[in-house]
Design goal:
It is built from 1 helix and 10 strands, in the order H-E-E-E-E-E-E-E-E-E-E. With 168 residues, the chain is an alpha+beta fold. The protein has one domain: minor pseudopilin epsh fold (3-Layer(bab) Sandwich), CATH 3.55.40.10. Strand 1 and strand 2 form a beta hairpin. 20% of the residues are buried. The model has no long low-confidence stretch (mean pLDDT 86).
């Protein structure tokens, strides 16, 4: 009787764990989307922050210090987005910024002061699910690399191809 119960319960736990990890990956995708949107539409420098110990991913903005409004801008957690709490056993195992790996356990990926932003690649791994997310510098939507049916668009320089003056 115990074997029958175990045979029906164990797969449900596996499916539930996979769904929890997939939800966390979707939330990180949404955070990357918000990072790109806030960078493109706002005037403040924005950063993607990861704390490996707590497993939290969040957006931060460089804004006026409430304690010293006349002083320099400081990094503060974004009030318009909720942090993502990765489930137990799930980590961002690799983060690349313009192809350069982030080496620290805790890191911040800021947008550039000129308003542009870097290319971000995140490899998220859990016990049941793994995903590679890429946010290109010219898009506002991250993509999952390796997912069936996903096509990553390449940036094209029309000047290099001699098509800059063609009518669209």
């Amino acid at each position: 009787m115990l074997a029958i119960m175990a045979a029906t319960i164990v797969p449900k736990f596996t499916v539930a764990a996979r769904q929890i990890e997939d939800k966390a990956i979707l939330e990180v995708e949404d955070l990357l989307r918000m990072y790109a949107f806030r960078n493109g539409s706002g005037t403040q420098q924005i950063g993607l922050y990861y704390d490996k110990i707590s497993g939290e991913v969040s957006l931060w903005i460089k804004d006026l210090d409430p304690a010293n409004p006349e002083g320099p801008r400081v990094w503060q957690q974004d009030r318009l987005s909720s942090p993502v709490q990765l489930p137990d056993g799930m980590l961002i195992v690799e983060a690349l910024v313009d192809g350069v790996p982030m080496r620290d356990e805790n890191w911040n990926i800021p947008s550039y002061p000129d308003g542009s932003r870097p290319r971000i690649e995140l490899l998220i791994a859990g016990r049941e699910k793994t995903a590679a997310l890429v946010l290109e510098t010219y898009t506002t939507v991250p993509v999952r690399i390796g997912e069936p049916g996903v096509v990553v668009r390449e940036q094209i320089d029309l000047d290099d191809q001699g098509a800059a003056l063609e009518k669209w």
